[in-house]
Amino acid sequence: MIVGTDELFEPLTLPRGPAMKNRFMLAPLTNQQSFDDGRLSPEEQHWLTMRAKGGFAITMTAAAHVQAVGQGFAGQLGVFDDRHLEGLTRLAAAIRAEGSISSVQLHHAGNRSPKELVGTPVCPSDDPETGARGLTGDEVAQLRDDFIAAAKRSEQAGFDGVEIHGAHGYILAQFLSAEINKRDDLYGGSLENRSRILFEIIDGIRAACGSDFQVGLRLSPERFGLKLAEIRDLAAELLRQAQIDYLDMSLWDVAKEPVEPEFQGRSLMSYFTDLPRGDVRLGAAGKVMSAADARGVLEAGCDFVVIGRGAILRHDFPERVRREHDYVSPALPVTAQHLLDEGLSPQFVTYMRNWKGFVEEEAAA
């Protein structure tokens, strides 16, 4: 199937809530711009509002932690306390004013929480490698309930929906990993048990929030102890149950093949695009840096495309693709001033220096 640029700008209905005005979603991007207590900063609001203005159909926050002990990085947006409501309400209104759907990504870092931020991190089971402590049964129930409460808080703030972060080795992915999750109760053992908390969170959000509230889910099928066959089976069941509105697959590179040898010979993405999905929408993220890349994701069978680095480099990535059918993101590295002009704060630019080859090195004085 050949996809033209115009098809990237066709509206896309979702099972619940407002339709996407085009096929571009802003990836949830770590930026370390929030206040230390998780409240929204003016810098983070500016960064996200610029992307909404730049044409993204869905503007998603960075990962926002649902428990204080789940903080994954300094300057992380919080959604675990009512003190976060004022900033979240401002942000939801600002995104809506720019004609974009607003979403909060719900996150808990689990054993990836830095000790200097949270003390002793927590994990599905004791993890000697990181020093994380295994959750008790009551704490698993509290974790589930806090994801649900964070979704309800996001709805109260005026957001159109949330995305549950089940990817990248954070706590829900830790539950999914048989290598990390050594529990012997209802939340460990079989894939059905290891994924139980995820389904309970989804069902709980559906029960707690309005019928038009959108719920998405981000999964990654590799690394961090995950197995492609299991994540594919999980995705198939999620799509069958249709309690989510979209599945956001984080693939590192949308063109790559699987790392597991027995699955090579076709793209990693194809293991998900060929699943029956009814009305649930499917998107993918991973090195989509040009108009041609974006068209390719739709050609491969996805409904929408998720833009990360391309959106850091240009706040108006969708509009540039609309104007230039052969648009390509700026070559790396870029200057710090380029990123400041694109709405990143000095703190965000400092964080981006951790990405090798992204920001030009400053000349020595």
Please characterize this protein's 3D structure.
The chain is α/β, with parallel strands linked by helices and 365 residues long. The protein contains 14 helices and ten strands. The protein has an eight-stranded parallel beta sheet. A two-stranded parallel sheet has the order 4-5. α10 (291-299) links the parallel β9 and β10. The longest helix has 20 residues, at 137-156. It is globular. The N and C termini lie far apart (54 Å). The mean pLDDT is 97.
Give a summary of the structure in a few sentences.
The protein is of the alpha/beta class.
Strand count: 10
Number of domains: 1
Gyration radius from CA atoms, angstroms: 19 Å
Q: Give me the CATH superfamily.
A: Aldolase class I
Instruction: Tell me the name of the CATH class.
Output: Alpha Beta
Q: For the largest beta sheet, what order do the strands appear in spatially?
A: 1-10-9-8-7-6-3-2
Question: Could you tell me the strand content as a percent range?
Answer: 5-15%
**First-residue to last-residue Cα separation:** 54 Å
Number of helices: 14
Could you list the spans in which at least 5 consecutive residues all have pLDDT below 50? Answer: none
Biggest beta sheet summary? 8 strands, parallel
Helix content: 25-40%
Q: Indicate the CATH architecture.
A: Alpha-Beta Barrel
Secondary-structure class = alpha/beta
Query: What is the chain-wise order of helices and strands?
Result: EHEHEHEEHEHHHEHEHEHEHHHH
Q: In the CATH scheme, what's the topology name?
A: TIM Barrel
Estimate the global geometry from the Cα principal axes: globular
Query: What integer is the average pLDDT?
Result: 97
